[in-house]
Amino acid sequence: MNKMPLARAAAACAALSSLALAHAPALACEDCDCDDAPVAAVAAVASATTLSTAATPADDTPPAPRTKLGLVRVQGAAPSSLPTNIPTTRETVTREDIERNINATDAEDALKYLPSLLVRKRYIGDYNHAILSSRASGTGNSARSAVYADGILLSNYLGNGVSGLSFPPRWGLVTPEEIERVDVMYGPFSAAYPGNSVGAVVDYQTRMPTRFEAHAKVGFSSQSSELYGHSNTYRAWAASASVGSREGAFSWWLNLNHTDSDGQPLTFATRVASTGTAIPSGSTATPATGAVLVPNSSNAPWYLLGAGTRYSTAQDHLKLKLAYDLSPTVRASYVLGLWRNDSDGNSESWLRDAAGQPVYSGLIAIDGKQFTKLTASDFAVTREKLQHVMHGVSVKSHSGGEWDWEVAASLYDYQKDSKRQNGLTVNGVLTDNPQPGALSGGAGTLADGSGTGWNTLAAKGIWRPAGTDHVVDFGLQQDSYKLSYLTSGITGNYLTDSPGAMVNNVAGKTRLQAAYAQDAWLLNADWKAVLGLRAEHWQARDGRTDFSATSGQAYPSRSENFLSPKAALSWQAAPETVLKASVGRAVRMPTVSELYGATSTTNSLYVNDPDLKPEKSWTGELSAEQGWGALQSRVTLFAETTRDSLYSQTVVDAVLNKNVTRVQNIDRIGTTGLEATLATTDWGLKGLDLSASVTYTDSKIKANAGFVSTAGDTVGKWQPNIPRWRATALAAYRLDEHWSASLAARYSGRQYRTLNNADVNGFAYMGVSKYATADVRVLWKIDRQWSAAFGIDNLNNYQYWNFHNYPQRSYSAELKFDL
């Protein structure tokens, strides 16, 4: 992480900057190319402070770095969504960190060891369930975090989580090879962001060359997975190439990446043991063997009948970036991103009849009991083809003078988004299409989301009043979202035929318009205040849900207005001690899918609510940052109260044999916690760097009058997917200029998935378990151009769950060339 770089880099930065910093507010570290300075020297990066040092002693011994409050006056031209003065906790991962310490096969892996963060990545290339979790936001709440790449929105606010449809950030629009650095800001303390920033803001900054350069990389991964008595090996490989240059005022960058991945089975066909009945006379049920009897997440016995949803994915990524300096202080930029995903979802029955043949349909008899018949919903076959396109354009002034400005626009388009699946249910009537016949055709559905997407517009300014100690960020923003998903029936060959009659249709739009201002004010040498206000106007319109060509409902338009104040205060209590207090309000608007997204398929039902209230949170934190030479630490106390919390809760309906998801407001959730970090360089041995974090969180449902199984059964229960304890640790050792190695560990305590915490067994399909895993990586820099790496993730082969099962021990190898 950026807390572990060499202390000598900080001393170098300090020596070069000390004279200027002694008399004037300093530039941010990136302005002096000191990105490797440790956190003691770059408090500006972590807490909106800047570096300063005393004069170098007569014996030329470098002085110990010290922090000093100041106003960050960034002059860089690189795109970024972050404002100039960050009023709260910030963590950073650099390209060098990723290369040395992280087995990064996807962009989200860069966040793996940051405090209090978790991405629910189930396999390499996980495109529909990789949700970001933070301090008080679980892996079911993707709309409570904000992910950007070069200032362009990647978070998918068309929905929340993976209920009904799937809405994780579009991680595939960034590859690990193009990342220059990743900045994470915790909490909704900047007025520059919507209420979705209540958890965290992640900003990927990708490479832009200053001279000609070219890179190529190939990688391979292998996972041996054994679960419920069934084992297999799943592999993935990836290749990428990038080239770029700068000639005078013009610079460009092109990145290509291809990934092929086979993931382990993620879902399982089940029957609760208690639903079995006596076999009646003349029953046509097929006696079957091979079912696995285990406790489910509620500790009730159930039979696992087979494995489902094993994805084989092929993904392509293209990124083109162009920049032209219109003048020495004004740059125009354009970004094109193209992401393609072809994914086959397959399933396999473990049941065998008397002849040893697999059983995929009909009534079944297990251990002398009869169970409901198998249908296509038990062993689904899916075929998805996605092609998404992203455009971004900006013109930015970066003079560093009294005024700077930026205008920017982006578009994310579901150019092609189709999913074909076996089995067809129309008006409650099932046309079943089980395997093996479904592998070659038959009845099914086609879900088409083409035309869905979002666009953003923004005009931003920075005012640095002459002769004052103020830096003011302000701006106007508009974010617009359109959801359009039509599911059609196909009675012939669902794999190839055109869509037939409507099965269901979901459509709607939302728009958020905002104006904000934020003033960073250096009160004196030891005190700084950041005050901000965000005004928002939200609209929802054109909402419609159809369950057939003759049964539909249109919803009236809605609009609401909100104000969200922000405030932060920093105090330089001692030369290497900074104390901070931050508070902010966040209003997270309902997404289009939550409002209008009712859907019904063969194996799931999603119940929407067009009258959902926006989610309103007050968040505060108190932080102390302390340095002891090369040893740096931070302790943060955080608290959040959220009213009308937006939740999608999925339960299994044994009668319908479906996953039923209902979206609702939870009256009040209260969270308090403590986060501590520690990092040091050259600890006890030259080249050995250590970092660690631990987070304690108490997050409980305080009031809930919404949908529950039994009145009052959720009050006092843990907020889903928030563990009480989580921790990370990373040790990195540079053996010499050619070899480096790292050992990392992650821990998360017990969690619950359901609002009433009824899922008491986390180590089961649909449960959420604790985990403790270790990862290793060895990097060999063969020469200036060639490097190779070998890694193992989940070294201890821990079997753990977050509804689905996470990967088991995985091996990776990569070879890289840099010109």
Automatic annotation (TrEMBL):
Gene3D superfamilies: TonB-dependent receptor, beta-barrel domain (2.40.170.20), TonB-dependent receptor, plug domain (2.170.130.10). Residues 85-201 form the TonB-dependent receptor plug domain. Residues 1-28 form the signal peptide. Transmembrane segments: none annotated. Residues 386-795 form the TonB-dependent receptor-like beta-barrel domain. CDD domains: ligand_gated_channel. The keyword Nucleotide-binding does not apply. It is a multi-pass membrane protein. Keywords: Cell outer membrane, Ion transport, Membrane, Receptor, Signal, TonB box, Transmembrane, Transmembrane beta strand, Transport. It is found in: Cell outer membrane. SUPFAM superfamilies: Porins. InterPro entries: Beta-barrel_TonB (IPR000531), Beta-barrel_TonB_sf (IPR036942), Plug_dom (IPR012910), Plug_dom_sf (IPR037066), TonB-dep_rcpt-like (IPR039426). Belongs to the TonB-dependent receptor family. This is TonB-dependent receptor. It comes from Pelomonas candidula.
